[in-house]
Structure formats: structure tokens, C-alpha cells
Amino acid sequence: MVIDSTALVTARGLTKVYDGPPAHTAVAGIDFDVLRGEAFGFLGPNGAGKSTTMRMIGCVSPRSGGELTILGRDAARERRTIKARIGSVPQDDTLDTELTVEENILIYGRYFGLPRAVIRERTDRLLDFARLVDKRSARVQELSGGMRRRLTIARSLVNEPDLVLLDEPTTGLDPQARHLLWERLFRLKQDGVTLILTTHYMDEAEQLCDRLAVMDGGRIVAHGSPRELIERYATREVLELRFPLDQHELAVEKARGIGDRLEVLPDRLLCYAADGEAALEEVHRRGLDPLTALVRRSGLEDVFLTLTGRTLVE
Amino acid sequence: MSAADSLLRVPAAREAAYWWHLYRRTWRGTIVISVANPLLFVVAMGFGLGQLVDARDSTYLQGSYLGFVAPGLLAASAMQLGFINSAGPVFQSARVGGNYRAAVTTPMEPTDVLTGHLLFNAFRLLTASIGILVVLVGFGATELKDAPGSLLAAVLTGLAFAAPVAAFAITVERPAKLSALFRFVIMPLYMFSGTFFPAEQLPDWLERLVWVSPLWHGTELCRGSGSTAIHLLVLLTLIAVGYLAARRTYTRRLTA
């Protein structure tokens, strides 16, 4: 995997306002750069503006304000040229369920103006990539959710794009299907394809993304590599405590001051500390007797809780 | 590069090719329908109802009833086909997960999608109208020399509905609105556009209302009566206005 310093996508003050009534600002002036060869993620809850940002990068939705340059070209003026070099995996599969797997790739390839012979030759490789070789002649309606998603990704590669946009690529899939998809996406990344993806899964962001932009309410509230974000916005470890519900509030009062910061969730206390074991000792010393106590490394979910004060998956 | 590949360098042709790809599965059935339907109509209207009408020797008719009703049937079928091929398919394609949504993520623009779909609709109108004309000419209801002019008139009539209906269908959230359009606009036009009986025999006020019906202009053009220029102007205006409106509604819906 090679990441160079050339920005493939540059956004400055990028804004999207949907006409009303009432007018709604979905993206409120964001700045970011995506470098060639990296996997860049937009992380955030539903309604944060991730999909709208992706649609603007995909040149499907025009921006309302700001600057957006993709592959060195202006997104508003050179839509066709940019779209010819982008692979797009929208949030909802746009496969034709009446047609076969192979036909879906053919139709999509034609939209790029590719000759039939070229599409046919690429189809073999794409089906192999998506592990759908034996489903070549199956109708899409017969495929599982995971297979459909893999087909949508394979289809998006028919034009051999420089940049692939994946809007919530694994939402709604079972764990096995997600892991298989991650493995395929990781392979793409290793092949040097630049990926931009949105997700509201922390593990997905940590697995796949070199850099992240955390979005909330149409703004980027933080950005950096997953490790940088964790170091900046969370402590090294987290102590998770669970008490009987009737003792929850009392425990909150008694636990105040342990560690660097205490996050109170409806069912748990999260105690952010450099040394989780030491924090647990302090909990016991104060006479608290949690039902369960877990010391773990902090992750992106903790970053998100710190930044927005609420859980990600809504 | 094959001839088909060269043609597909035009973006709109790629959308037409998509519909053609789907059509290849059902074309045999549509040909049967294109011939069987007019056959039933000709037998029922021409030889059934026509016998009664002709026996009454109506002052409104110059020739046989079959000769009168045949062009009406051709134009009305084109209207219905123009509606059917635009309403449901456009609505479905614009929905989440629909074909239009996939197309606009590629170098295709909403106008290409619209133009390609209408081009395919024009092709379907052409082939279906040929099927109908084969029956009408075969039964002597239409003279062979009038067939090419009638064919062009039928295609224009169909497109005069297909374009505005596409402009509307892409804005619709519920299919019930399309059913309502069929029930409250298409059906009354079908009945009162000089299709089955001459508009002249209606009361004056209703006859004047018929003049604004696009189907009446299409029927008259198929029949070769009245002012060809005015009929053409009405149909071409509807196609142009419908197309321009659809460009706006397609762009608004597909690039929000």
C-alpha cells in the first residue's frame, strides 16, 4: 500500500443546503483532504452529513457552497470526467434484481461507455474478486445481502477507478459477511485503490481507515488516524463498571474523581484512566462493589463519546 | 469496436440499451399483444358494432365505421402505451435502488437517462404501432398508402403523452397518483377524443373541450382530417414542453 502526499480529493468550506421549507443544512462548511492510496473514513451517527458528503464527492449531488476538487478537477464543472474515474457503492444497493449477476456488471459497464469485450474480460476478474464466480448466471434476487454487497462493490470496479466511494458498505450484514467484505476491501487498498467510506461502526473504521473525519451535525468535529484520535480524545485504558440499577446513581456519586474522566451511560459507568487496574483498585477502596468490571484499551467509540456525548449507532 | 459499441459512445444510447436489454426478455409477448389486441378490436368494433352503425347510415360518417374507428384505435393505443411505458417504469427507476440511481453514479447525467428512456419508448411506440397497422391494413380498415403517415402520427401521439408523464412520474412518491392520472385523465381522453365516434356529434360545448385533447389531435392526424399543421404543432409542443419539464424534474430528483 502506497500513500503519497498528492491530494485526490480536496474540500474547503464544502456546504450542502437542501431547499426548504424549512431549508436544511446537511453539510456545514467542512475541510478535508484525501490522499492518493489511503483509506479515508467519515465516521458519525445517522444524519451527520456523511452520505450527503459522499454524494457530493461522487458528483451526484451538487454542492451549495465552498470548493470541491476531485482528481484535480472541479466537481461542479467536470462531473462526467470525474465520474468516469470513480467507483460508487451507494448505501442502498442499486442492483437490478431481475437481471443476473453478469448482466448487472454488463449494464453498469456500458454506462461508462466500455466496449462489450472489455466488460466481458473484466467481469471474470471482478466475479473472482467478489467470490461470485459460481453465481455468474444467478439472478440478483436469489443472492444473500452479503453477496449483493460484494456484487455492488465488484460492479463499481468495472471502470478500474482511481477512487472508490463506499457509503456504509457493511450496514445490515451479518458478522461473517462483514469480515469477508473487510478482507476484500483491504485487498483493494493494498492494490493501491484510494477508498473513501462512511460508517457508523467503530470496528470497521479501525480496521479499514488510515485516517478518519468524525462528523456530527454536518461538521467535522475531529480528524486524524484512529490511533491519533484515541490518543487525543481518550485515555489509554477504560474501566467499564456495571452496578445493580438501583445502586447506579449512588455509585456515580462515589466513583467521581476516579481516573481522568467519568462517562455516565444509562447502564454503565465508563472510567477513563491511563491505568485501568489502578482505577479499579480505587473503586474497591471506596467500598464500591460492581456487578461486572472490565478494563480494556480505549477505542474509537470512546473518542466519539468524548466528542459528542452520545453513542454512535442509533 | 463493434457498431453497437460505437453507438454506445452516446450516453443516451446507453440508457436506451438498458431498456432494450430488459425488453429482449419479453419482446415476443409484446408482439403478440400488439397484433392480438387490435385484432380483437377490429372484430368487435368493426364487424360487431360496425354492422349496427353502418346499418343506421350515420350522417357523421363518410365511410364505414371500421374505417372511422381504425385510426382512433391506433392513436388511442399509442397514448396508452406512451403512458404505460413512462409512468410505472420511471417511478420504479427513480426510487431508492432503482436503475436511474445506478446510472447517475456513472458518467451519465439525468438528461441522458431521460433522453435514453424516451428513445426506447419511441422505439416501442414504433414497433407496437406497426403491429396495429399490419392488422388494420390487413382488414382493409386503413389503406396501405396512408400507413406511413399514420405510423408517424401514432408515434408522435405516444410521445406527446410519454414525455409529460415522465416529467410527472419522477416526482411521484406513491404509485396511487399514477393510477389516478390514468383513471381521471387518460380514460376520459380515451372516451371523448373522437376515437369511437366523431366529436361533431357531441354538444357544442363538449366538442370545444375535445379540441384541447391531445389525443383528438393525434386521432385526427392519424385519420388525415383537419389541419395537419395544427395537429402537428400541438403534439410537437407537448413533446417539447414535456421533455423540458422532465429535464428539470429528473435533475431535481436524481441529483438532490
Question: How is this structure best described in words?
Answer:
The complex is a heterodimer of chains A (314) and B (256). With 314 residues, chain A is an alpha/beta fold. Chain A has helices spanning 50-57, 79-83, 101-111, 116-129, 145-156, 175-190, 202-208, 226-233, 248-255, 276-285, 300-308, and strands at 7-18, 24-35, 39-43, 65-70, 73-74, 86-89, 163-167, 194-199, 211-216, 219-224, 237-242, 261-264, 269-273, 292-297. In chain A, a hairpin with a 5-residue loop joins strand 1 (7-18) and strand 2. In chain A, helix 3 (101-111) packs across helix 4, helix 3 packs parallel to helix 5 and helix 8 crosses helix 11. The longest helix of chain A has 16 residues, at 175-190. Chain A is globular and about 75 Å long. Chain B has one domain. Helices cover 77% and strands 0% of the residues of chain B. Chain B has helices spanning 3-7, 11-23, 27-56, 65-94, 99-103, 110-138, 147-169, 176-191, 204-211, 214-223, 228-254. Chain B is globular, with a radius of gyration of 19 Å. The relative contact order of chain B is 0.14. Chain A binds chain B through residues 18, 58, 60-62, 79-81, 83-84, 86, 88, 90, 92-96, 98-99, 103, 106-108, 110-113, 115-116, 159, and chain B through 1-2, 4-5, 8-9, 11, 14, 17-18, 21-22, 96-99, 101-109, 254-256.
Provide a compact summary of the structure:
The complex is a heterodimer of chains A (314) and B (256). Chain A has 314 residues and is an alpha/beta fold. Chain A is built from 11 helices and 14 strands.
Secondary structure layout plus pairing:
The complex is a heterodimer of chains A (314) and B (256).
Chain A: E1 7-18, E2 24-35, E3 39-43, H1 50-57, E4 65-70, E5 73-74, H2 79-83, E6 86-89, H3 101-111, H4 116-129, H5 145-156, E7 163-167, H6 175-190, E8 194-199, H7 202-208, E9 211-216, E10 219-224, H8 226-233, E11 237-242, H9 248-255, E12 261-264, E13 269-273, H10 276-285, E14 292-297, H11 300-308
Parallel strand pairs in A: 3-8, 3-9, 6-7, 7-8
Antiparallel strand pairs in A: 1-2, 1-4, 4-5, 9-10, 11-13, 11-14, 12-13
Chain B: H1 3-7, H2 11-23, H3 27-56, H4 65-94, H5 99-103, H6 110-138, H7 147-169, H8 176-191, H9 204-211, H10 214-223, H11 228-254
